[in-house]
Amino acid sequence: MAAPWASLRLVAPVWNGRIRGIHRLGGAVAPEGNQKKKRTILQFLTNYFYDVEALRDYLLQREMYKVHEKNRFRDKEWIRPDKYGHFSQEFWNFCEVPVEAVDASDCDINYEGLDNLLRLKELQSLSLQRCSHVDDWCLSRLYPLADSLQELSLAGCPRVSERGLACLHHLQNLRRLDISDLPAVSNPGLTQILVEEMLPNCEVVGVDWAEGLKSGPEEQPQDTASPVPA
Amino acid sequence: MIRRVLPHGMGRGLLTRRPGTRRGGFSLDWDGKVSEIKKKIKSILPGRSCDLLQDTSHLPPEHSDVVIVGGGVLGLSVAYWLKKLESRRGAIRVLVVERDHTYSQASTGLSVGGICQQFSLPENIQLSLFSASFLRNVNEYLAVVDAPPLDLRFNPSGYLLLASEKDAAAMESDVKVQRQEGAKVSLMSPDQLRNKFPWINTEGVALASYGMEDEGWFDPWCLLQGLRRKVQSLGVLFCQGEVTRFVSSSQRMLTTDDKAVVLKRIHEVHVKMDRSLEYQPVECAIVINAAGAWSAQIAALAGIGEGPPGTLQGTKLPVEPRKRYVYVWHCPQGPGLETPLVADTSGAYFRREGLGSNYLGGRSPTEQEEPDPANLEVDHDFFQDKVWPHLALRVPAFETLKVQSAWAGYYDYNTFDQNGVVGPHPLVVNMYFATGFSGHGLQQAPGVGRAVAEMVLKGRFQTIDLSPFLFTRFYLGEKIQENNII
């Protein structure tokens, strides 16, 4: 927040003609040197004139609006591509801003592509749902996000198995993990239990732990006939 | 009739062939060929039994450019890369001779299947890094039309090496080298270790190195089958037989210092068929010794090591089979899903196997405890006395465990410095080695295969320079010791 506030200067020379008029009251518009003197004059005038006070509030609001415009994403608004898959040019204005959440669902992101995501040191939420190229090797690359990542979703990834889920134990700040609908996991119920044991502070979502269990004593005679693979 | 056309000067000298060795040069053997043709024509004529068209489908071909002795993961890797790097399709004819197609004693199938980059030699680290990227993209490298993709079942859980006080400094410098080469390894103090893995007892541990990426274990059998399938589709011929003899020729030459040296060149490989006395002489240009634990026998057949000890002729290939045991046990309260392959300060190691609280592991015996490598029988007392105490000390949960099964396999152990032998022999000029990796052959196979193929096709190592691994180091006495052998 330091940069926006630093740019917030009530006497910044980005004024239209009408406002300039006010400054002529307090002296010529000049850079740094006269600022302190000017601010006290404006302050003095504000204390005496309601109009000047109202004007100053209005100017302040305009500055704040500009800052909010700059930090628009802070209101948790997602930046999405348009219907052609292109991102708007304004996105380039947000170069310095840390990215909190990435939704890469249904994306073709692969092992090398994760290079770009791993540089986001303040990423809190990552969604890799239904990514067809995300596999166990890709999951082993996620450990640099351990300090910040709180939410991870791997639902529906066809190549993720329980062996890749084992390397999620580096992500100790994870609070929510979605591992539903992973076709490559051999035993979803048991995997859910083991992952919950591995990440005690995390809410693991997606699999009903009773899924792998046999139901009821009436089925037992049938089971002894067919050997259960060890 | 044809004989009259030959110039008189050539005479009989060229046409006689001595049994066993040939003196170099080009022998046309007109007489023999003419008599063969006459025999064939006579047999086709009516009234004779046509016994020329015998079924030789079980025999290897009569000619092959490269003969690879040994069809394990290293031999198949060399075959694969030879075919991949050849200058045009079908340029090289490769034959892989494997004694046992069930691979019942081969080190590849019996291996624990780990891959790690935590070595002390930069070459080893580079080989493992390349192998990791090979395994990651295995379905692009080994894709065969209409065949299902390979599932190597790779567990990216990493290796955790523990070091005591006296090894801590060496481990730190090793990790520095590993990081320089690009391996992602992190060092942990005992406190951090306890934080991360609460089931570890850090008594006696001064430092630990943990591989974060590209390390873990996979299914070696699947890799072997995938390589076989791909290599067969690329046109490599397979033969089930045993190499019993090399027919070679020698040439006496002078070195630049005017010392006489005898260079040998192998011309034929005699491949004996399984359970029979039938053999086929395969004429070849290059022989690759990838026979694993039995490489020394193959080298002895080629005459390597026959000479006064201390000379280059007398330097044997120091690879011998060493038996290693792997035990599988069940421990319900054992370490969880995140368990890496833990290698203890005592040399004992273990890793998880599957989801059901099963673990497998073992320990390399000391020199005095080495078991007899004559067979693959498992000694269960070894686990009781030499492995379990160390495991129980390191992981208290392992005090109660139940051994489910065990097996034994061979290391192709290099008694000189426990690192592989790669490249040509200085005296037997067309025998190349790809053996002696002492337990880390599987994880370096893709890189070594490529290096040997480059050496054969281009004459030098191009991607990874394995010149420290050449045979000459045995004669010169230059050991390249690898410290981190499990």
UniProtKB/TrEMBL annotation, chain A:
This is Distal membrane-arm assembly complex protein 2. InterPro entries: LRR_dom_sf. Interacts with incompletely assembled mitochondrial NADH:ubiquinone oxidoreductase complex (complex I). Belongs to the ATP synthase subunit s family. Transmembrane segments: none annotated. Required for the assembly of the mitochondrial NADH:ubiquinone oxidoreductase complex (complex I). Involved in the assembly of the distal region of complex I.
TrEMBL record, chain B:
Keywords: Electron transport, FAD, Flavoprotein, Membrane, Mitochondrion, Mitochondrion inner membrane, Oxidoreductase, Respiratory chain, Transmembrane, Transmembrane helix, Transport. One of its GO terms (cellular component) is mitochondrial inner membrane. SUPFAM superfamilies: FAD/NAD(P)-binding domain. It is a single-pass membrane protein. Pfam families: DAO. It comes from the Eukaryota. It is found in: Mitochondrion inner membrane. It comes from Pan troglodytes (Chimpanzee). Its main location: mitochondrion. Required for the assembly of the mitochondrial membrane respiratory chain NADH dehydrogenase (Complex I). Involved in mid-late stages of complex I assembly. Associates with components of the mitochondrial respiratory chain complex I. One of its GO terms (molecular function) is oxidoreductase activity. Residues 65-455 form the FAD dependent oxidoreductase domain. This is FAD-dependent oxidoreductase domain-containing protein 1. Its cofactor is FAD.
